[in-house]
Amino acid sequence: MNQTTHPHQEESLKDLYSSSPKHGKNSSGRWKKIAAAAAGVLILGAAVFAGVSYYQQQEKAKNEATLLRADTYYAGTVVEGIDLGGKTREEAQKALEAAEPALLPKIDITLTYGDKSWTLTAQDLGYRFNTREVLDEAYGYARTGSDEDRLKQIEALKTTPKTYRLTATHDEAVLKQKLSEIERAVNVSPVNATVASFDTATATFHYKDGKDGLAVESDSLFSQVNALVGGSGTGTIEIPVKTVPFDVTQAHLKSHMQKLGTYTTTSTNTADGNHNMKVASAAINGKVIEPGAVFSFNNATGDSNLPENGYRKAVAISGGKKVLEYGGGVCQVSSTLYGAAIRSNMEITSRANHMWRSSYVPLGLDATVSYPYLDFQFKNPTEYPVYIVAGMAGTKVTVTLYGYQSPDYDAIEVVSQQTGTVAQPADQFVVDPSLKKGEKVLDRKGNAGIRASAKRIFYLNGKAVKTEALPSSYYRAIANIYKVGPGTEGTASVSPASSAPVSSKPAPSAPASSSQASPSSHASSQPASSQPNTASSDSSGQTESGQ
């Protein structure tokens, strides 16, 4: 079939494909517009792409900087199976400490001795983990070197975690402390031979033999336990022990337990006074003073003011005068005991001298008592008991102490001397209405005061090896007291009849190395000051059970 082309269609085709000048101008403009639009799109696309790329780069740089400055552990940092990623140091520390108990090694060690046994576990060994050191090391990972190297390390943690282990170490000091507790339950102290009894009638000692002790061999036990702890952690150990012999044998005691010191005084008292001395002597006879113990004369004799305790009225000193009082004479027993005690190396803790010097002992070597205010006390300074043997035969009072004789000396000499005097105070007068004017009667004889010192000298093989001061003494200076009739001349400083005589309170004394006896708070019982008082008119009299 033939196709017929219309004239106007041909014209259109010619316009479209024709290159004739007639159509060239319009076609060129259209292409330019298309090209310009395409270029704009391309430029815009390139700009958008560049912007997005720049933003992504900035964000990446920002994220990397933040990562490098992070104060938490990097993800992939693992300690004992715990990923510390994102945790602060404090959070990581708490997480690992919570896990530590489960990480302790298994310790099961049994210690035996005889039928006793003890078990040691990890809790007894004071285990400590190196947690802080490991955390410091883990925190430091990927934090050194260039930023590029660090970022590579951080990125690698995502596929290959960095793992760390904790190490537990037991504390040897804690182990030793635990073992010492066990040792105390095993150790047995040796027992020295000792005095079982003492027969005061025959002055004979009976002895009890010593017994060896046991002691754990501490170094050996520690080494064995430590070896197990560092090895398998389990096992049984028989506690090693050694014998500890006692030091003091019966033979040694027999050669040293002996008479230490003895002293005798002679009484010039009345029959009742001598009776009181016998009662007091019997009260202290057989008393045992344990090592380090303090003996009290008053505690031993009881209240010497009570007749129901067997005491009678006899001469005593009260108000500066000789009077009859219950218990008069017992001061001679306390003074005799003092003489024996200082010759036996006893430690004097409380002692007071009389108001006046005593006739039955040398100056400065008496010891008065006045129940319950003035007491004579001494301490046993040895490691063995001391026994008192006391009694009265006729008019003689004897006290002997038996105990351990130190090898440091073999004899003690006691000496005393007067060291000063204090003038007798002026006479005092008391008006007595029963006397006539001009009559004067001596009511109490006065005397000057005396100061005295004492010491004991220790000898060994005849040579003095030590000297110790003993308590010093002050015997009060007291005035004569006269009773006078009313209006008697020459008695201008007459005291009223109600005036009491000067106090007879004795001065307490103690060695320089010991505290003085504390006076009673009772107003009528305070011991007198050791300072002289030439014008005393103290009315608080106190009875001394002796003269």
Overview of the molecule:
It is a single chain. This protein is α+β, with helices and mostly antiparallel strands and 547 residues long. Helix content is 29%, strand content 28%. Strands 13-21-20-14 form a four-stranded antiparallel beta sheet. A four-stranded antiparallel beta sheet has the order 15-19-18-29. Strands 24-27-23-28 form a four-stranded mixed beta sheet, with no helix packed on it. Strand 1 and strand 2 form a beta hairpin. The longest helix has 49 residues. The protein is elongated.
Brief overview:
The chain is an alpha+beta fold.
Low-confidence stretches: 12-19, 496-541
Strand order of the largest sheet: 13-21-20-14
Give average pLDDT, whole number: 85
N- and C-termini, Cα separation: 182 Å
Tally of contiguous helical segments: 11
What level of helicity do the residues show? 25-40%
The biggest sheet, with number of strands, parallel, antiparallel or mixed sense and barrel status, is: 4 strands, antiparallel
Keywords summarizing the entry:
single chain, 547 residues, alpha+beta, four-stranded antiparallel sheet, 11 helices
Topology:
Layout: H1 7-17, H2 21-69, E1 77-79, E2 82-83, H3 89-103, E3 108-113, E4 116-120, E5 128-129, H4 131-139, H5 147-156, E6 162-164, E7 168-169, H6 172-186, E8 194-199, E9 204-208, E10 213-216, H7 218-230, E11 234-238, E12 241-244, H8 250-256, E13 257-266, H9 271-284, E14 288-289, E15 294-296, H10 297-301, E16 313-318, E17 321-326, H11 330-342, E18 347-352, E19 377-379, E20 386-393, E21 396-404, E22 411-422, E23 428-431, E24 440-444, E25 449-460, E26 463-475, E27 481-484, E28 494-495, E29 508-509
Parallel strand pairs: 1-6, 3-11, 23-27, 23-28
Antiparallel strand pairs: 1-2, 3-4, 5-7, 8-9, 10-12, 13-21, 14-20, 15-19, 16-17, 18-19, 18-29, 20-21, 22-25, 24-27, 25-26
